[in-house]
């Protein structure tokens, strides 16, 4: 069929981060045929991303080896989901072509992406997300000798700073927007999670400042400085070569929403895929685990993934055995959200001429009178560019409270040959229904 190769598996896992690896290993013990797809070159997800500048932690190597030990697990790296042409199947694409994958059970472990919010100068070369900087360094970006300022919110700032410093960068400041009291309460709560407390101690940095957030980035053709507002209301300007700014994470729910899965709020403003006690979504046969259900760290993702994998193959006893671990890390996630909730002042960062949609050059002033996401898309072209609203959609939701509509296929840039195969699949389905 026009170059689209048909395949089948009992359980299809989308995403090979901690949740996806745990789900695949749990389901594989039943003897079912398992396929794991991921758009990265190797399993590990964002948190355990591999590359020339990365040193994989023992946990990452352990789970990779577990995948390799099971002959009934097929890992397809460098593979993306394009569409869902009919119930029980996904259209996939990799470097070699397109695959029409039929599945008996589906486990979504699509992770999360970094929340990037607009501020004056954020489109200058040299400005990235905090997690984005980590990924670039791990992929081999040379930062030795560069002066870097890390800003935003959450523990990822410390991790990004540590990654940059280990690669030879000079980290000048880590600006955390949360207050000292909020961060101190979070730190004190880590006594319940000794491993996290040890990580916090290891990542402690003398450049760390609370109640401090980015105001603007300066530079003619690339970043030359950053202006920060401190807790006392004063502003300070720091000369630098790079700014890594991230305001937390947003669950990747696009595929789940396209499949009809409902969303649920975690009580802290984060809307992930809705799941029950067995990680089942609102759509029969589809499960979800990890940060697409709300973010809370790799330990929580591993517990959820194990439950989803066992539940997908009907092993209720094995699934129940991980409930206590999941509850423990759910409590940690709640503490994380409380400690690093974004301050209202962050919404005031953009000026009228600050671009919100950088793909289509749509400024903040052009969106202020729009009634919602659809209005902004139709009349201002917001979200019509290469990222398809993945960056500006999250920003608009934070700034204006807009909820983007459910995505439509294709979910990612795709070859013409694959689209032709999709059209033929849909045509064949229509003929069969007549």
Explain how this protein is built:
By secondary structure, this protein is α/β, with parallel strands linked by helices. The chain contains 14 helices and 21 strands. It has helices at residues 18-28, 58-69, 130-138, 156-166, 180-189, 194-203, 254-258, 298-312, 316-320, 323-339, 364-367, 373-380, 392-400, 416-433; strands spanning 4-14, 34-37, 73-76, 80-86, 89-94, 97-108, 112-114, 127-128, 147-152, 170-176, 208-209, 213-218, 225-229, 235-239, 242-246, 249-251, 263-265, 271-273, 286-288, 355-357, 362-363. The strands form six sheets. Strands 1, 2, 3, 4, 5, 6 and 19 form a seven-stranded mixed beta sheet that branches. It has a five-stranded parallel beta sheet with strand order 8-15-9-10-11. The protein has a three-stranded antiparallel beta sheet with strand order 12-13-14, with no helix packed on it. Helix 3 packs parallel to helix 4. The longest helix has 18 residues, at 416-433. The protein is globular, with a radius of gyration of 22 Å. The model has no long low-confidence stretch (mean pLDDT 93).
């Amino acid at each position: 069929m026009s170059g689209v190769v048909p395949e089948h598996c009992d359980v299809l896992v989308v995403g090979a981060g901690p949740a996806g690896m745990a789900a695949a290993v749990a389901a594989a013990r039943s003897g079912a045929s398992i396929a794991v797809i991921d758009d990265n070159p190797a399993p590990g997800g964002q948190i355990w991303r591999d590359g020339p500048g990365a040193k994989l932690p023992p946990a990452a190597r352990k789970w990779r080896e577990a995948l390799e030990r099971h002959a009934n697990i097929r890992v397809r790296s460098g593979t993306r989901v394009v569409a869902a042409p009919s119930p029980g199947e996904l259209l996939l694409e990799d470097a070699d072509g397109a695959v029409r994958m039929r599945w008996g059970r589906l486990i979504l472990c699509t992770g999360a992406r970094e929340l990037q919010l607009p501020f004056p100068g954020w489109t200058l070369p040299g400005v990235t997300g905090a997690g984005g900087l980590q990924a670039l360094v791990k992929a081999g970006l040379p930062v030795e000798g560069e002066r870097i300022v890390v800003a935003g919110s959450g523990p990822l700032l410390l991790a990004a700073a540590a990654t940059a410093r280990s690669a030879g960068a000079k980290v000048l400041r880590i600006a955390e927007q949360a207050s000292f009291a909020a961060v101190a309460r979070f730190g004190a709560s880590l006594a319940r999670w000794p491993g996290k407390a040890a990580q916090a101690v290891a990542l402690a940095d003398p450049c760390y400042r609370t109640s401090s957030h980015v105001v603007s980035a300066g530079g003619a053709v690339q970043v030359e400085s950053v202006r920060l507002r401190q807790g006392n209301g004063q502003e300070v300007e720091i000369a630098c070569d790079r700014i890594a700014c991230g305001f937390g994470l947003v669950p990747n729910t696009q595929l789940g929403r396209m499949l009809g899965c409902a969303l649920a709020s975690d009580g802290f403003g984060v809307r992930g895929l809705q799941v029950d006690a067995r990680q089942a979504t609102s759509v029969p046969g589809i499960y979800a685990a990890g940060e697409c259900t709300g973010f809370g760290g790799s330990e929580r993702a591993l517990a959820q993934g194990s439950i989803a994998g066992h539940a997908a193959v009907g092993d209720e006893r094995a699934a129940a055995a991980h409930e206590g671990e999941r509850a423990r890390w759910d409590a940690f996630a709640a503490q994380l959200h409380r400690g690093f909730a974004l301050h209202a002042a962050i919404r005031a960062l953009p000026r009228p001429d600050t671009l919100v949609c950088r793909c289509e050059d749509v400024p903040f002033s052009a969106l202020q009178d729009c009634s919602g996401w659809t209005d902004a898309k139709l009349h201002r072209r917001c979200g019509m560019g290469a990222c398809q609203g993945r960056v500006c959609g999250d920003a608009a939701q934070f700034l204006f409270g807009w909820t983007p509509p459910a995505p439509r296929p294709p979910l990612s840039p795709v070859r013409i040959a694959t689209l032709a195969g999709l059209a033929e699949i849909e045509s064949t389905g229509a003929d069969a229904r007549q």
